[in-house]
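Dear colleague,

Thank you for sharing your sequence with our group. We've completed the structure prediction you requested, and as agreed, I am returning the results in plain text so they can be pasted directly into your records. Please verify that the sequence below matches your submission; if there's any discrepancy, let me know and we will rerun it promptly.
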Amino acid sequence: MKWVAIDGSWEFDNKTAIYKGPSKDETNRNFGIAIIDNIFHNGDIKLKIKLNDSIDGSSANLIFGYSTELRQYYYLGLGNWGKSYVLAEFSETKGWSSIDIQGNCNNLKDKEYLIDVNLRGQKVFFLSNSINVITNILPHPLLGNQLGVMAWGKKKITFEFIEIKPTNPKCFVVMQYGEPYDSLYSEVIKPILLKKLDVYRADEIYKPGIILQDIIKGIIESEIIVAEITPPNPNVFYELGYAHALNKTTILLAERNKDLPFDIKGYRCIFYNDTIKGKTEVENELLKHLNNIFDESH
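Please find the predicted structure tokens below.
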């Protein structure tokens, strides 16, 4: 594992980073950031945090979705804003802003914490010493793909990555059921998407429950949404609207000469003819769109 210090004074040894305090020439910047070379968009992370002293006046955090271009990232950890557990975001324009905060930092008595993070699309599960302390939905997808750590204060803090286990990103497909759309999905859309993603529709979820909840869960936990919008199906447009509200990457499919509603004309759309040749065009264009998306974000 390779490390790069962005702010603060650090020591590195393979999977371990030791924050020693602010840099001597940056005393007005009372924090440190270090990033690693692992690419991560979806999956599980285990991180051990060792405090040399109490957390009072300090914080220790995992950074994910770090974008070197935008200087924007999400982070979660211990001791921010005087709270026990925090999920938050940093951007150059807005600074630090909380998404979810829990507890009082006075309750952080231990000197060592095992942090587990499970990221499924925009759904985040934050566990401290095997206890789930925060579950929430990120306001937008990750803008970058780097991991790192951040410490605040002047006290020594040790970070050790125990495990980084990426999982395949998911793609959720919304469309009208029945022919010819079922064949379009099974013969064209699904085989192409499976080249890069785990793909499914709501009717492939075999469990008891309310189907709308399964659809919402599928949209939240997916990185890419593909929507076939040829027939004016209210359910499809409801699901597409929810995906847009979460700022999901979306790819639209529609038969040629389909007049798109004004609100979605700016989104990626593949127009096709309902013919054998048209299916080949869908395959080629869908693969091209996927390659562009992964080149941009990964």
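Summary note from our side: The chain has two domains: 3-166, 170-297.

Kind regards,
the structure core
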